[in-house]
Design brief:
This protein is an alpha/beta fold. It folds into two domains: 231 residues, Aspartate Aminotransferase, domain 2; 139 residues, Aspartate Aminotransferase, domain 1 (Alpha-Beta Complex), CATH 3.90.1150.10. α2 runs antiparallel to α4, α4 packs parallel to α14 and α17 crosses α19. The protein is globular and about 75 Å long.
Length: 451
C-alpha cells in the first residue's frame, strides 16, 4: 500500500473484516476490551469477559441515586450489561448505525421494533414475503392489541405500498432477502415511500447480514437481525439485534409518535428532548426492553460476539457455495425451479447485482417435480445436509416448508407465496461444495430409484 493510500485511510471507516474484529475507527471505545474498566493495569482481557450476573453492586447511596436518575451505568442486567453492550457496539459499527440494542431472540427484536412505534388503533404495512413467525405476529397477535397490518404482494412496487398506507400507518416492514425465496428488496425505492409519509422503514436483514448489504445506507431507518443465525453462526444460541440510524426527525414526524415527543407522566423531558435523533432506540432501550423483558443472556452475547469475528469469512464461503448449489440444481431434470437471485435466470438478478454484489446469501428454495412424495424421499436420503428448522448455520440445512414452518397456511396461501408440495428450503453451509453436490445427487438418485 502506498503512503498516499495509507494516509487516506487514517480516520476513515475501517474495512468490514477489521471492524468485525476491532470495531469502527470512529468509535472512542473498542467494544472488544473497553466494555468495562478493570482497575489493575496488569489485567487487560483481550476478549470481553462474560458478566454473568443478575445485578451489580452499588457503591453507595449517592451513586445509586445518580445511576437511576441518569440511566448511565450498570444496576441490573435486564437494563444493561457490559458483555451485551460490547455486542451492541460491534453490530452498530458493522451496520453503519448510530446505536444497537441486543435482545433475547430475533423475534423479540421484531416485536420491540414494531411496538416501539405502533400502538392501538394504528397500522403497519408489510411485504407478504417475510418470515413465517413475523407474519403470524402481524396476522394473529398484534390485532389483539388493536394494531392492523396490510400486506403487499409485490414488495418492489412503490405504488402497491402507497395504496395501502393510511393516516394511521406508523411503519413499513420488509426483509432485505426474504425467507424462503431469496427475492431481493429494492430498499431505496420502499424507503422513499416511507419517508414521503414521515414514517420509518424497518428491514429484517437477517439473511443478508451487514457483510452483504447494509440497509441503512440505502435509506432504511431501522434494521433487525436474528443473531441466532449468521451472527452466532453455529446454531448454539439465540439472540436478536435492533439497529437504528439515529435520524428521528421530530419536526417531520414527531406528531406521529407521541411516545417519543410527549413529556413523561412526572414531567421529565421527552425522549426526543433527551436523545434527539436517537429517540427511537433510547425509547426501546429505556422503556420497551426493560419492561417487556426479552433480555439476552450475557453468555449468549459472548458467543454471538465470537461469531461476529468470523462473519465475513463464513458468509462469503456460504454465498459462494449457495451459488454453486443453485447452478447445479438448475441443471437437474428432477428440479422444477430454483429461487436464487444469484442466477442469471432470476427475475431479481439485476437487484442482486445492485444491492448484493459480494454474494446473494445462502438461504433459498427450490422445487422438486415429484411433489411431497419426492421431497420425502429426497430429504430422507441426504447425509451431509442436516434436516432441521434453522438458518445461517455453518452446516448445510434442509427443510420441507409446506409440512413444517408454513403448515398453518392454506393451500391457496401457499400457492400465492410460491410454495408448492415439492418446495424445499436450504441454508448452505461452509462444507466443501463437491460434498454438498454429491449429497444432493444422492437425494435425486433416490427419487429416480423410487420412480
Amino acid at each position: 500500500m502506498s503512503n498516499r493510500s495509507i494516509e487516506q485511510r487514517v480516520g476513515a471507516r475501517r474495512g468490514f473484516a477489521t471492524q468485525q474484529l476491532h470495531g469502527d475507527a470512529r468509535s472512542s471505545a473498542d467494544p472488544a476490551t473497553d466494555a468495562i474498566k478493570v482497575e489493575s493495569p496488569r489485567i487487560t482481557p483481550r476478549q470481553t469477559p462474560i458478566y454473568l450476573t443478575a445485578g451489580f453492586v452499588l457503591d453507595d447511596f449517592d451513586q445509586a441515586e445518580q445511576l437511576f436518575s441518569s440511566g448511565e451505568g450498570y444496576s441490573y442486567t435486564r437494563v444493561a450489561n457490559p458483555t451485551n453492550e460490547a455486542v451492541e457496539r460491534r453490530v452498530a459499527a458493522l451496520e453503519g448505525g448510530a446505536e444497537a440494542l441486543l435482545v433475547g431472540s430475533g423475534q423479540a427484536a421484531v416485536v420491540l421494533a414494531l411496538l416501539g412505534l405502533v400502538q392501538s388503533g394504528e397500522h403497519i404495512v408489510s411485504a407478504s414475503s417475510i418470515y413465517e413467525g413475523t407474519r403470524g405476529l402481524l396476522l394473529d397477535n398484534l390485532p389483539r392489541f388493536g394494531i392492523e397490518t396490510d400486506f403487499v404482494d409485490d414488495a418492489n412496487d412503490p405504488a402497491a405500498w402507497e395504496r395501502v398506507i393510511r393516516p394511521t400507518t406508523r411503519a413499513l416492514f420488509a426483509e432485505s432477502i426474504p425467507n424462503p425465496k431469496n427475492e431481493i428488496l429494492d430498499i431505496a425505492a420502499i424507503a422513499a415511500v416511507a419517508h414521503a409519509h414521515g414514517i420509518p422503514l424497518i428491514v429484517d436483514s437477517t439473511l443478508a447480514t451487514p457483510f452483504l448489504v447494509r440497509p441503512l445506507e440505502h435509506g432504511a431507518d431501522i434494521v433487525v437481525h436474528s443473531a441466532s443465525k449468521f451472527f452466532a453462526g453455529h446454531g448454539a444460541v439465540l439472540g436478536g439485534v435492533i439497529v437504528d440510524n439515529g435520524r428521528f426527525d421530530v419536526d417531520r414526524s414527531g406528531h406521529l409518535f407521541p411516545q417519543l415527543t410527549d413529556r413523561g407522566r412526572l414531567g421529565g423531558p421527552s425522549f426526543a428532548e433527551r436523545a434527539g435523533g436517537l429517540a427511537r432506540i433510547a425509547y426501546l432501550r429505556d422503556v420497551m426492553a426493560p419492561r417487556f423483558g426479552p433480555t439476552a443472556s450475557p453468555l449468549n452475547a459472548f458467543l454471538i460476539q465470537q461469531g461476529l469475528e468470523t462473519l465475513s469469512l463464513r458468509v462469503e464461503r456460504q454465498s459462494a457455495n449457495a451459488l454453486g448449489v443453485a447452478r447445479w440444481l438448475e441443471q437437474q431434470p428432477e428440479v422444477h425451479s430454483v429461487d436464487y437471485s444469484g442466477l442469471e435466470s432470476s427475475p431479481f438478478h439485476a437487484l442482486a447485482e445492485r444491492y448484493l454484489p459480494d454474494g446473494q446469501g445462502s438461504v433459498f428454495s427450490f422445487t422438486l417435480r415429484g411433489g411431497v412424495d419426492a421431497a420425502r424421499i429426497f430429504i430422507n436420503a441426504l447425509d451431509v445436509f442436516t434436516h432441521m428448522t434453522h438458518l445461517g448455520d455453518v452446516r448445510s440445512l434442509v427443510l420441507h416448508l409446506a409440512s413444517t414452518s408454513h403448515n398453518l397456511r392454506t393451500d391457496e396461501e401457499l400457492s400465492q407465496a410460491g410454495i408448492w408440495p415439492g418446495t424445499l428450503r436450504v441454508s448452505i453451509g461452509i462444507e466443501d461444495l463437491d460434498d454438498l453436490l454429491a449429497d444432493l445427487d444422492r437425494g435425486l438418485t433416490a427419487i429416480r430409484g423410487a420412480a
